[in-house]
Amino acid sequence: MQAWVVDTPGPVDDGPLLRLEREPPEPGPGQVRVRVTCCGVCRTDLHLAEGDLAPRRPRVTPGHEVVGVVEVRGPGAGRFAVGERIGVPWLARTDGSCRFCRRGDENVCTHPEFTGWDLDGGYADACLVDERFAYRLPEKLDDERAAPLLCAGIIGYRALRAANLPPGGRLGIYGFGGSAHLTAQVALAQGTRVHVFTRGEQNRRLATELGADSVGGADDPSPVPLDGAILFAPAGELVPVALRALDRGGTLAVAGIWLSDIPSLRYADELFEERRLRSVTANTRRDGEEFLFLADRLGVRPTTVGYPMAEAPRALADLAHGRFAGAAVLHT
Ligand SMILES: [Zn+2]
Ligand SMILES: [Zn+2]
Known about the structure:
The protein is an alpha/beta fold and 332 residues long. Helices cover 25% and strands 26% of the residues. It is built from ten helices and 16 strands. The chain has helices at 43-50, 99-102, 143-146, 152-162, 178-189, 201-209, 238-245, 267-271, 285-298, 312-320; strands at 2-6, 17-21, 31-41, 66-73, 85-88, 91-93, 113-114, 126-130, 170-174, 193-197, 214-216, 226-231, 246-254, 276-279, 304-308, 327-331. The strands form four sheets. Strands 3, 4, 5, 8, 15 and 16 form a six-stranded mixed beta sheet that branches. Helix 4 (152-162) packs across helix 5 and helix 4 packs across helix 9. The longest helix has 14 residues, at 285-298. The chain is globular. The relative contact order is 0.17. The protein binds zinc ion (2 copies). One zinc ion is lined by residues 42, 44, 64, 90, 151.
């Protein structure tokens, strides 16, 4: 089979990925091998390719929004039938025994493994998944539209909950890419007022089409005080901007796995009056199941741009340079 790997991390335009011929992996106990049909392109893949995130294994295959069909089941694997469509997400495995797993917070497990970082992911013809961490996907969505739900959707949903909005509250969304455009759909369907701050004409147009209450530039002042906000752009300089836009008691949730440095904060304007700043780290399987249920029920519909698997580097470069709105998805 063919598989892309991160060969030499560096600027995406310098070609950090390499395509190799590899033996299809054999599933171990509790694992299944998935024949990949689609794999979403997440900003985390770009951070790995460019070296913002340190590699955890040399020549790992990126990709953690994998849709495919079960091809081979390993010993003891029986949750899914051979031929069944499943999704392979970012959270690949947790130890199940650390103090965080035992209290239900497996997203901050002390020994987690992630698809496309510790384990080979979906920029390939096939990959493995521990069946306990895979998902069934909403039947209404085809493979290309289901793929972005698996990380962009789930992490955005966790961030939305972290922003701790009251019913009918006012949400600020900073940055409007793959994750934000799904999160906005959930928030709007639940009656939240959504204010979007983003660069890029295409992103602004998509936010308007989806029904955002207002759409402005990345660091424009908010037209209303915000009850909560989510920072999707990996731009630390927007943290004080978003904190200043919060109403008293509001929460800013940072959704990304990587953020550039945050400038110093002014306590009186940016934190006092019980404004809160918090991060979002991975997700629990329960977040995933809840989000996929809601996405189906609320009719969340990803805006996607398809690329052949052979053009994975072009898809990553287009993401880096903001050349599309919504989410890129690779097809085998
Ligand atoms: Zn754990
Ligand atoms: Zn991701």
